[in-house]
Amino acid sequence: MMILQPPRFIRLWGALIATPVLMSLALAARAEEPAIPRGDLATTSKTIVSGRVLLPDGQRAAAAQVAVAGHRRWHRRRGGRHDSEILGQAVADDTGNFELTTPRTSTAEFYDLFALAALDGYALGMTPLDADSQRSSSIVQLGKEEVLRLRLIDLEGQPAAGVELFVYQIGVVRSDWGGWFQNVTFSQSPERLPFWPRRMKSDDEGRVALGGFSQASGVVVVVDDPRFARERTTLGGNKGEKEQILSLPPSQIIEGTVSYADTGAPAPNTRLTMRDAVGNSDDRGRFRINPSAGAKMTILAFAAEGEPYLTTHTTFEWPKGAAKHTIDVALPRGVLAQGHVVDQDGESITGAAVQYRPLLRNPNNRDSLQLGWQYSAHTDTDGNFALPVLPGEGHLLIQGPHGDFIHQEIGSRVIDVDQPGGERLHPDAVIRLDVPPDKESVRADATLRRGVTVRGRLVGPDDEPVRRATIVSRLQVLGFRFHGHVPTEIFDGNFELHGLDPEQSYPVHFLATDNEWGATATISGRQAGELVTVRLVPCGTASARLLNKNGTPLGGRQQTFELVVTPGVARHDRKAQEKGLLAMDGDFVANLDRQHNWGLKTDDMGYISYPALIPGATYRLTIAIPDVAKEFTAESGKNTELGELTLPVE
């Protein structure tokens, strides 16, 4: 049986994002070399990444292939998978040192940034980078290679020979994130990344052996063979299995034709997605997709960029016992909203994301349309965009690239029902539309205001730079909402805040989970040009006892609580929002600090402790839905006693 190795060519980049599944790498030590200074405060269009690749025994890894990759916060392609993006690549010299240049990065634009390194005979290495640093340095350590083995069988238990597979994700388990994976993802093998494993086939016994990783790696492989449904499985991840067995259900082939609803003509180059499969219609509008198995299917069809046709989705039950099903898709015609996006100085903005949302009362809206976050356009190099919209009332929401632009605040009910209140949305610009039904296109130009960047140093109680921490503020936006599920990480005491209004101040929370240090600081846009110092102090704690409505202790109960980033009513309190009130910005603390707060439960007597709370931060403990909650502010080195809390349960 042949062991599949990553090819021997130049190896170059990698990326990550926090989601499940992935790879054999050692999160390498950063402390062995001093941090590279960030340089002056001038904004540049490039980032320089340098460092060293080491073998498992600490020796220099000459000629190792290195790559840098990142996962953008915005999808770049309508209807596409949220793949990683290759930013740069290099080959280490004879001493294991490397240096490469990437386009400018920032934590406002990328979930995270990684350096990957590979060398034949060793397990791939991966280490996080400081996305805000103009010059960053890291050590990437390779691991000891352990072959990952998989055996494929059909539903009758017979070997599945000659089955095609590809590697979809490679990642590493983060123990400080409650076992979550950070990973690099490619829905198709990246040609620009030669050390990424190529497509492979199982042998006559249905076996596959994958080299270049270790048992500590998490490697997701996807079955992509017309005889079987598209299945995925994770190899490694310290499961301790010498050989993993995967049973493959037969394929469920979907085929059909995409046409334009108004003319009946074939719709070529339509992008179609089903479950975890992606395909395109040919020049006659025909398509064929082999998704993962299921009894209920939904197919999304995205017209080619720049066409005036709307995205639609169709849900159907799989015919019992069928191996193939035919379904035709008709793309409804919309009105093309065309616009030019500039900054306050009239400069065109490339890469701004534009999303359309109709008012709920718009009579042209219907359930079969796919609008919202999956339905967006991006401005081209001249700042222009084209996005189909519906006749009638609606809004375009625009977010600039790089996180450099000043967010507005608007309630979701304004966007949905033309009334105040709702969840807080933070677009960089909003365009109100009322499109006549007889129009073929409408203009929708927008001006975004560039904000300022504040840079700072994060130090501990000893005034030494904090090696690793997370930062949370209302500037942290994804899909126009505050987003805390993927905390912004900072390294070596350096942090940046992007897109600040020069006339506003922002509460910002910092947490170093390993040290249990934290701080809440108020940072102003007027501090741009300075180097702001924030000093962390020991975290606080809180404790409570949970009782049911009969006064009996609630043992073994998981009780969630939230960090309040922007004050407001509870996010689930619809009645308050319908009265015109805005919901809080915030997130469950377990999403922000999985190391300490993932799966907290009461003991047998109903007592519960909340550890590692950020001093000066406000927390909300939900007692009942929708409107009973306990709020408190954490204090450094102190325990906040919340007393006995009665939940309205038996």
Task: Write up what this structure looks like.
There is one protein chain. The chain has 650 residues and is an all-beta fold. Strands 12, 13, 14, 16 and 17 form a five-stranded antiparallel sheet that branches. Strand 43 and strand 44 form a beta hairpin. The protein is globular and about 65 Å long. It starts with a strand and ends with a strand.
List its traits:
650 residues, mainly beta, five-stranded antiparallel sheet, 4 helices, 53 strands, 44% strand, globular
Q: Can you give the mean pLDDT?
A: 87
Strand content: 35-45%
Q: Total helix count?
A: 4
Low-confidence stretches: 1-43
Strand tally is 53
Largest sheet: 5 strands, antiparallel
Helix amount: under 10%
Shape: globular
Cα radius of gyration in angstroms: 26 Å
Q: Classify the secondary structure makeup into a structural class.
A: mainly beta
Short description:
With 650 residues, the protein is mostly beta strands. It contains four helices and 53 strands.
Helix and strand layout, with pairings?
Elements: E1 3-4, E2 46-54, E3 65-72, E4 85-91, E5 97-103, E6 110-118, E7 122-123, E8 125-128, E9 135-141, E10 143-144, E11 148-154, E12 164-174, E13 180-185, E14 200-201, E15 207-210, E16 218-223, E17 232-236, E18 244-248, E19 253-260, E20 271-274, E21 277-280, E22 286-289, E23 296-302, E24 312-317, E25 324-326, E26 329-331, E27 335-343, E28 353-358, E29 376-378, E30 384-389, E31 392-399, E32 410-411, H1 412-417, E33 424-425, E34 429-435, E35 441-443, E36 446-448, E37 452-459, E38 468-473, E39 477-478, E40 481-482, E41 488-491, E42 494-500, E43 505-512, E44 517-524, E45 531-535, E46 537-538, E47 540-547, E48 561-566, H2 574-578, E49 585-588, H3 589-592, H4 594-597, E50 607-613, E51 618-624, E52 628-633, E53 639-646
Parallel strand pairs: 1-15, 2-9, 11-18, 19-25, 19-26, 27-35, 27-36, 37-45, 47-53
Antiparallel strand pairs: 2-5, 3-4, 3-6, 6-8, 7-10, 11-15, 12-13, 12-14, 12-16, 16-17, 19-22, 20-21, 20-23, 23-24, 27-30, 28-29, 28-31, 31-34, 32-33, 37-42, 38-41, 38-43, 39-40, 43-44, 44-46, 47-50, 48-49, 48-51, 51-52
